[in-house]
Amino acid sequence: MTFGARPVLQDVDLTVTVGTALCLTGENGAGKTTLLRCVTGLVEPDAGTVRVFGQRPDETATFWRRVATTVEQPSWYAGLTVREHVELVRLASGADPGDGRIDHLFTALGLHPLADSTPDTLSSGQRQRLLLAVVLSRPSGLLVLDEPEQRLDAGIRQVVAGQLRDYLDAGGSILMASHDPSLVAAVGCPVLALDTASAPSTSGAP
Ligand SMILES: Nc1ncnc2c1ncn2[C@@H]1O[C@H](COP(=O)(O)OP(=O)(O)OP(=O)(O)O)[C@@H](O)[C@H]1O
Question: Where in this chain does the record put each ABC transporter domain (predicted)?
Fold first, then answer.
């Protein structure tokens, strides 16, 4: 990619095998979010190839039924509660909102006391928990997460790590960016470090 005269993400080559996770790290501006946006089709790279489940990322429902992401912040519906948002997403994904999955996530993420609130009344960390509940509540094959630890306290970060491990155990794949080594260690995924020149160096086995 090039933004003006500034090259970003040059010579980057990575694969996330189905059922595994990979975490992108690197300093601010290294290109982590840009890479996640390329993978989710939100931005078209100037050159190179991106394939997700063998397909080019696009805007079709077929693509988005397999990919859940926090790269784009959602717009919350005025008047709908926290619980109604998650139910709506789960229902629209063809899953049963009453099968206990939402209660499981609300218990894990501490959202039960906020279930009847509207998102605009939540703190930024509470809204981040809601966002994670939304993406984890619907069936998907790939989670693309941009700094899932953002604004979360330490206890909830470990809970999120546990939910991500559960997602992997169920056969899902995860590509995420993070600045939190403890979260990455708790998920147990390999790390791909992007430097500001975007030449990747790896630690762990992607
Ligand atoms: N839409 C855009 N227009 C111009 N420049 C952009 C745009 N998006 C990203 N950039 C630039 O690309 C570079 C990489 O940005 P990116 O957000 O991918 O970094 P990052 O590694 O996610 O950083 P952070 O750790 O701060 O989240 C930065 O220099 C940024 O200014």
Answer: 1-206
For residue 121, the tally of other CB atoms under 10 A from its CB is: 11
Q: What pLDDT score does 126 carry?
A: 98
Q: Between 3.40.50.300, 3.40.190.10, 3.30.930.10, 2.30.40.10, what CATH number should domain 2-203 receive?
A: 3.40.50.300
User: Which residues fall within 8 angstroms of residue 119, CB to CB, at 6 or more apart?
Assistant: 76, 82, 85, 127, 130
pTM of the model: 0.92
**How much is the pLDDT for 185?**
97
Query: Ligand 1 pocket test: which of 1, 2, 3, 71 has the largest number of ligand atoms within 8 Å of its C-beta?
Result: 3
Q: Ligand 1: does its nearest atom lie under 6 Å from the Cβ of 25?
A: no
